[in-house]
Amino acid sequence: MGKIYLDEDGYQNYLKELEQLKEKINLNSKDISEFQSDDAYGDGWHDNFAYEQAIQKENALFYEYHKKLKGLDQIEIIKTKKSSNLVEIGSIVELHFDGELETEIYKITGNTVSNFRLDQMEITLNSPLGKSVFHKKINDSFSYQVDNKKISGKIIDIK
């Protein structure tokens, strides 16, 4: 796992996500106890679909929780400078992708998850696109890989 770049809000959101995962684990543990002890569901583990599903969910939640916990050591908090000539957290960038006719506009955020809303497409600095445009200027080229496909383009404007 490489560095995780966040702004202060993104870091607080990261900590909230950890707490939410803990809550989900606790709720799932209650489900496991209920499904395990309820005779209507079987004898505790044989042929008890609800119990087996709760155990699988628990494994997935613990994996996600420990992955996020490890990520705490990789976090670097970026201070928002809001330079008008460099792409920073909070910048709104207009990009032209090679082979496309129209440009696209994105806001660079310091969160861990990108948000694609109709009114504003936000991408995290930690996404391949976010990393490829970070600290670049107008007219700079960028490129990144998604699976086996190379995507490239040019920065048209920074606001």
Would you give an account of this structure?
It is a single chain. The chain has 159 residues and is α/β, with parallel strands linked by helices. It has 2 domains: 4-77, Helix Hairpins; 92-158, Chitinase A, domain 3. The chain is built from 3 helices and 8 strands; from the N terminus they run βααβββββαββ. The strands form 2 sheets. A 6-stranded mixed beta sheet has the order 5-6-4-3-8-7. A two-stranded parallel ribbon has the order 1-2.
Give the proportion of residues in helices: 25-40%
CATH class of the largest domain: Mainly Alpha
Q: Please give the count of helices.
A: 3
- Mean pLDDT score, rounded? 86
Order of the strands making up the biggest sheet: 5-6-4-3-8-7
> Structural class per helix/strand content?
alpha/beta
CATH architecture of the largest domain: Orthogonal Bundle
Terminal CA distance reads 31 Å
Instruction: List low-confidence stretches.
Output: none
Any idea how many domains?
A: 2
Compute the CA-based radius of gyration.
21 Å
- Enter the CATH topology name of the largest domain: Helix Hairpins
Taking the sheet with the most strands, its summary is: 6 strands, mixed
The percentage of residues in β strands lies in 25-35%
